[in-house]
Amino acid sequence: MRVAFGEGLIEIGGENEDLVVLTADVAKPTHVIGFGERFPHRFLNVGIAEQDMVDVAAGLALSEKVPVAVAFAPFMMRAWEQVRSTISRCSLNVKLVGTHAGLSASDEGASHQSLEDVALMRVLPNMTVVVPGDREEVKEATRAIVESRGPAYMRIGRDEDARFLEEGFRLGRAAVLRDGSDVVVFSNGYLTSEVLKAAEGAPVDAMVVHVPTVKPLDAGAVVSAARRAGAVICVEEHSVIGGLGSAVSELLSAECPVYVRRMGVGDTFGESGTYRELLEKHRLTAPHIREAMVKAAGRRGKR
User: Fold this and answer.
1) Measured distance CA(196)–CA(172) in Å, rounded
2) Using CA atoms, how far apart are residues 58 and 68, in angstroms rounded to an integer?
3) Is the pLDDT of residue 302 over 70?
4) Prediction pTM value
5) I need a labelling partner for 76 at 20 to 30 A (CA). Which of 44, 55, 86, 263 fits?
6) For the chain, what is the domain count?
7) Does residue 160 form part of some domain?
8) Position 156 confidence tier, pLDDT thresholds 50, 70, 90
9) What is the pLDDT of residue 251?
10) Do the beta carbons of residue 208 and residue 178 sit within 8 Å?
11) Looking at the domain assignment, is residue 48 inside a domain?
């Protein structure tokens, strides 16, 4: 995903001379170093100073540039006050990208695992929140947020290389990847590939809906799928508090009350391990998702 993100920035940078990329001393691991080598006059490394990076990006936006500020997702949250008070409150055209999101910085442990970033960004007025799932979608989502107006936050993983989307990314739109009538699973990020594996071998008819834009949520698609299936599961590489599962639950509680199960990381911090070990610990692999599908299907029509 990081490679695709870097490639996408270079493509857009060749077309848009107002694009400026900023990083907090992580140009190489976030794969924006290529943009810096290609367009050195539009590349700023502010050092390990995320708050400064965000404020500089705000100034560039006020100068009619299109700044993309890049850092590891957990450390981007160091600048949340500046994001809130400067970018979101003023609705500035700044794009924030957090890499190594979720559990993907697995061996680095709790300090490097961002399990709260979607919740923190989703609560901010004017902020678009995007969680793409495969490498081509990362490229398309990068272009979409750059070409849109207003603040946006996109989170991507580290080494995932899934490919499961046939249609292109559309900002604010969910995509039905598999039809079904017994249960619907809403997911985003890399975990959508695990959901698809789970659905293929499930003894129930599972619909899979990929939701890369958490805010604004595709309310029409979510309500329609929930109404048809009658039972819902939300799967995400994020805390079960405040992320995609919360967004879907908030919507359905008002528009289509059905059984909803949220699958993600519980009310806890991360820990060290391999990526697969951590996904297994938090029951976010295909066998666990398949088990949840069967149980949820048995709750159809119940709250």
Assistant:
1) 21
2) 10
3) no
4) 0.95
5) 263
6) 2
7) no
8) very high
9) 98
10) yes
11) yes
**Please, are residues 214 and 129 in contact by the beta-carbon 8 Å criterion?**
yes
SS3 content of the chain, % helix, strand, coil (to 5): 45, 20, 35
Percent of the chain with pLDDT over 90: 90
Range of the domain at 209: 175-297
Which of these, 166, 77, 161, 90, lies nearest to 122 by C-alpha position? Answer: 77
User: Has residue 168 been placed in a domain?
Assistant: no
CA of 100: how far to CAs of 75, 141, 157, 185, in Å? 10, 17, 5, 24
Question: Which pLDDT tens digit goes with each residue over 157-207?
Answer: 887 777 888 788 999 999 999 999 999 999 999 999 999 999 998 999 999
Assess whether 266 and 216 both reside in one domain.
yes
Whether residues 281 and 145 share a domain: the answer is: no
Residues 270 and 213 in one domain: yes
Residues 112 and 72: their CA atoms lie apart, in Å, by: 8
The pair of three-digit structure tokens given for residue 105, joined into one six-digit string: 């910085």
Of 102, 126, 155, the domain-final residue: 155
Distances (CA, A) of 7 to 2, 72, 137: 9, 18, 12
Structure tokens given for 263? 């699958």
Pairwise CA distance, residues 140 & 4, whole Å? 10
Helix and strand counts by DSSP (H, E) for the chain: 12, 12
- When pLDDT is cut at 50, 70 and 90, the band that residue 301 belongs to is low
Please tell me the predicted confidence (pLDDT) of residue 258: 96
**DSSP assignment string, 143-176:** HHHHHSSS-EEEE--SS-------SPP-TT--EE
